[in-house]
Amino acid sequence: MKIGFVILNYNSWRMTSDLAWEVASYKNIDAVVVVDNDSSEDHQEYLKRLYHKKIHMVRSGKNGGYSYGNNCGAKICKDMGMEIAFFANPDVLVKEEDIQKILDQFMKTDYPILSCVEYIRPGEMAQPPFSRRRDYWDDLMDCFFLGRKFGGKTFSVGLDKNVAVQRVEMVKGSFFAVRLDDLIEIGGFDERVFLYCEERILSKRAEDLGKKMGIVTDAGYIHTHSASIQKECKKAGDRIKMLYTSRAYYHKTYTKIKGMKYWLLLSAMKISVLEYRICDIIRMKRRTEEADG
Length: 293
Fold this sequence. Notes:
46% of the residues lie in helices and 20% in strands. The chain has 293 residues and is an alpha/beta fold.
């Protein structure tokens, strides 16, 4: 069984290089595919220094977002004869033994998609460790302050250490592995979303085909959350608009929300974006005053 490891890069050459070099040294990884999503020339020049027989550099040709870039990586892995591919953000740290624990469960079970427990630092588990897939009411309430403040616990899922693989509705997009034949059957990643909701869409596509997702409970990875989106898109209002665009697309396309319910969701999202933009203006004004003072 040949195993690939896909890292999607956009203007994060240092983290991407560190992760690629580390994973390329693992005996259970046959190829590391670094997909560059049209980074700046400086970042591309640094990435060209990644000389290793296991590391394969690929330029996606455009910045088409998470789904587009990972589809490119999946195709390269499939063309290379890989049967399973890991997909990881550049700001992820994972040990060889944890990758092996996931591979062992692929051999023992029929799960098409597996991940492991996310940590924000050694010994400190991310909260929530994983979530159920958000529904219409979750996304509607998340548009309001009180909904965001009190609604988070309604879709969090606790870790069950009594099972080797815990079945979940959705794995986190920062790190997971998939059987490539199953990914092809699912239809890959939906390239009509640029960013956000990719794992939600993937899980819904998998569920509709009767395919399940699982978490290997005795394995873990560290996610430092140094996401490039916050570097490239500094205003919270712009980021939240991008998030809401993906959520609206998900509900229109996959949960088939329409009519008054869809109009209500779009209206709440527009009000929420306006609130975030006002907060951006206030923060910018405060920073200006502090700099002048």
